[in-house]
Amino acid sequence: MEYVSPEGLRLDGRRPMEMRQLRAELGAVSRADGSAVFEMGNTKVIAAVYGPREVQNRSQQINDKALIRCEYTMANFSTGDRMRKPKGDRRSTEISLVIRQTMEACIMTHLMPRSQIDIFVQVLQADGGTRSACINAATLALADAGIPMCDLVTSCSAGYLNSTPLLDLNYVEDSARGPDVTVGILPKLDKVTLLQMDAKLPMDIFENVMQLATEGCKAVANYIREVLLENTKQLENRRGV
Amino acid sequence: MKEEEEMVTPGEVLGKGTEVKAGKGAYLSPHNNTVYAALTGRRSVAPPSPESPDQRPTVEVIGHKAHGPVPEPGCVVIARVTKVMARMASADIMCVGSKSVREKFSGVIRQQDVRATEIDKVDMHSSFRPGDIVKASVISLGDARAYYLSTAQNELGVVSAESMAGGTMVPVSWTEMQCPLTGQIEQRKVAKVGA
């Protein structure tokens, strides 16, 4: 199948190095301490953060840092054909773990000993790149909750189809079973916290694809920063500072 | 006090470690000795106090989310008694100072912390009943389960209690409260409110 047309356009009309439209909204869940909705094109994810609060299961308590818990679920209406048994499968367990490890790398857990932070992410619409969208949503929700972080983690994926590196794959491109590199970075500190690829690629091409994904992460980071600053300004205006 | 104010997001550079100190909402990264923001909010720079030996200004980030109050040793809390045992009573903390807590904190009042005198002759069942509202001070963070509370002061103890008949009782002395409906007198460790 042809994923990049001779004119250099992808199936959804994007250029190879073009991202989908980003949209973010803070404070989507009123009961949570922090929450956010994050959209990358048709992928839509909601994240809620609770805590830092007392550890629920005492045996899990860590004496010198906070316990981070993460739960990833996909709504059964999120995919094209309705899902039957969405909870507790291998894929969501793995993504929960990935998100938890990525967020643990940026949260300053040593400031909140003997406490727990819960992150819940749910996919409302799945159109490829849910992993990245979940990480971005979780970052926003953590920032909204006012949890100290050493940097904002952002994530973006990139693939390689028809001998072209493609940024931010959608569902059709993702189903092509080509290489899919998901990268999570700390943009200001220039550190990689997540790197996943489930295929083989020659070293030089891999470097190009990863570079592209990193650029995508930086673009996401700029957008997230704008959203956070805008939100803080609005809150201040409402408070009348 | 504040020299300049601007919005920052986590990861933004606030200054060099040699020039500024990291306050709340900021952190010092050891590997390149730079101060970064850890929260979203306003940056504020406070000058050092004149007598401190370290003459660097402190840079802070003031976030917009207020966290719920947390009990700490020495503060006065309002708690509701949930269970009375022979040597201690357990209670749920509802307010810290004048602020209500957002999540559940449990506390225990041990027998020796009920009153200041004759601490070994205290009968827990004639000091508290489940459902009583108690004013107490936090002695320590306690064990892993509960904060240790004390009512060993005149101003501390039961401030509101319901009688067997269901009426809100009126304090009669520092050990007794009376029900306005039945006139029955019940034993409590009563707090001296006001005056």
From TrEMBL, chain A:
Organismal lineage: Eukaryota, Viridiplantae, Streptophyta, Embryophyta, Tracheophyta
Pfam families: RNase_PH (PF01138), RNase_PH_C (PF03725)
Family in the record: Belongs to the RNase PH family.
Record protein name field: Putative 3'-5'-exoribonuclease family protein
Compartments it resides in: Cytoplasm; Nucleus, Nucleolus
Record carries keyword RNA-binding: no
Keyword NAD set for record: no
InterPro entries with a match to the protein in the record: ExoRNase_PH_dom1, ExoRNase_PH_dom2, ExoRNase_PH_dom2_sf, PNPase/RNase_PH_dom_sf, Ribosomal_Su5_D2-typ_SF, RNase_PH
Molecular function per GO: RNA binding
Domain of life: Eukaryota
Domain Exoribonuclease phosphorolytic span(s) in chain numbering: 18-148, 151-216
Source organism: Helianthus annuus (Common sunflower)
GO CC aspect terms: cytoplasmic exosome (RNase complex); nuclear exosome (RNase complex); nucleolus; ribosome
BP GO terms, sorted: nuclear mRNA surveillance; poly(A)-dependent snoRNA 3'-end processing; rRNA catabolic process; U4 snRNA 3'-end processing
Keywords: Cytoplasm, Exosome, Ribonucleoprotein, Ribosomal protein
Automatic annotation (TrEMBL), chain B:
CDD domains to which the protein is assigned, alphabetical: S1_CSL4
Signal peptide: none
Main location: nucleus
Any single Pfam family the record assigns to this protein: ECR1_N
Source organism superkingdom: Eukaryota
Residue ranges of every copy of the Exosome complex component N-terminal domain listed in the record: 7-45
GO-annotated cellular components: cytoplasm; nuclear exosome (RNase complex); nucleolus
Keyword field: Cytoplasm, Exosome
Annotated localization: Nucleus, Nucleolus
Single GO MF descriptor: RNA binding
GO biological process: RNA processing
Domain Exosome complex component CSL4 C-terminal: 99-141
Tagged with keyword Lipoprotein: no
InterPro entries on file: Csl4, EXOSC1_C, Exosome_cplx_N_dom, NA-bd_OB-fold
Keyword GTP-binding appears in the UniProt entry: no
Gene3D superfamilies documented for this protein: 2.40.50.100, Nucleic acid-binding proteins
Alphabetical list of PANTHER family matching this protein: 3'-5' EXORIBONUCLEASE CSL4-RELATED (PTHR12686), EXOSOME COMPLEX COMPONENT CSL4 (PTHR12686:SF8)
Name listed for the protein in its UniProt record: Putative nucleic acid-binding, OB-fold-like protein
Organism: Helianthus annuus (Common sunflower)
